[in-house]
Amino acid sequence: MTGSILDRFHPQVAGWFQDVFAAPTAVQDQAWRAISDDENALVVAPTGSGKTLAAFLWALNSLVERAGQQALPIDGANTSTHGGVRVLYISPLKALGVDVENNLRAPLAGIARVAQRLGRDMPDISVGVRSGDTPQAERNRQVRKPPDILITTPESLYLMLTSKAAGILKTVDTVIVDEIHALAGTKRGVHLALSLERLRRLAGNFQRIG
C-alpha cells in the first residue's frame, strides 16, 4: 500500500492490522499522521470508528522494537522489561479500563504472531490495571515490576503521584485520556489537569492523546 499511513509502522504491526482490517478508518488515518509526528492529538469520532485503536496503535508500535522489548514473554508475566511505565491510559470509568485491557490482548497477541511469521523477535509488552478495586498485593507488585502500559483512573493517578508508586511514572512518554468529554468542564477534569501537570514535572514532556 504505497503512501499508506501503515507504511510508518513496523512490519509486524502493519501486518497484524492488514490481517484483521480492510483499511484504516478516516479517523485512524488522520490520528496516526498527527501522533506519529509526535503531535498531541484530540480524536473526535462516532462510536465504532476505531478511536481506541487510533489512540493506542502508535504507542504499541513504539514499544514493539524498543531496546529491551524484543524478548519472548516470560510465562505471561505482566512485568516491564525496562523498569517503568511508558504508556499511561486514563479512563473516567473503572469498567472501561478493564474493557480496554481485554481489547489490547488481541493486537498484542496478533503482533507477536506476525513478528514470529516474519522471523522477528516477539515483543514482550505488559499491561497492568490500577484502580480503587486493585488489591494491595497487585499494587505492590506493580511498584516492584511496573507494566509497560498502565490503565488507571484520574483518582488513582492522583494517589500514585502522592505515594512511592510515583517512581514508576518517571518514564511515561505517552498519556491517553479516554472519554475526555466526560471529564472536560467538571471538577474531575480540573483535578486531572492538575495531576497531568504534576506528572509532567515528574516525567518531563509527554505526548497527550485525548
Give a short summary of the structure:
This protein is an alpha/beta fold and 210 residues long. The chain contains seven helices and five strands.
General description of the model:
By secondary structure, the chain is an alpha/beta fold. The protein has helices at residues 11-20, 26-36, 51-64, 94-117, 136-144, 154-161, 187-203; strands at 87-90, 127-130, 149-152, 174-177, 207-209. The radius of gyration is 17 Å and the shape is globular.
Q: What general outline do the C-alpha atoms trace?
A: globular
Order of helices and strands: HHHEHEHEHEHE
Tally of separate helices: 7
Unreliable segments of 5+ consecutive residues: 72-80
Share of residues in helices = 40-55%
In whole angstroms, the N-to-C terminal distance is 28 Å
Radius of gyration: 17 Å
Question: How is the main sheet built?
Answer: 5 strands, parallel
- Strands of the widest sheet, in order across it, are 2-3-1-4-5
β-sheet strand percentage:
5-15%
Q: How many DSSP E strands?
A: 5
**Which structural category fits the helices and strands?**
alpha/beta
The averaged pLDDT comes out at 88
Set down the secondary structure blueprint.
Elements (H helix, E strand, L loop, with lengths): L10 H10 L5 H11 L14 H14 L22 E4 L3 H24 L9 E4 L5 H9 L4 E4 L1 H8 L12 E4 L9 H17 L3 E3 L1
Parallel strand pairs: 1-3, 1-4, 2-3, 4-5
Give me some keywords for this one.
alpha/beta; 7 helices; 5 strands
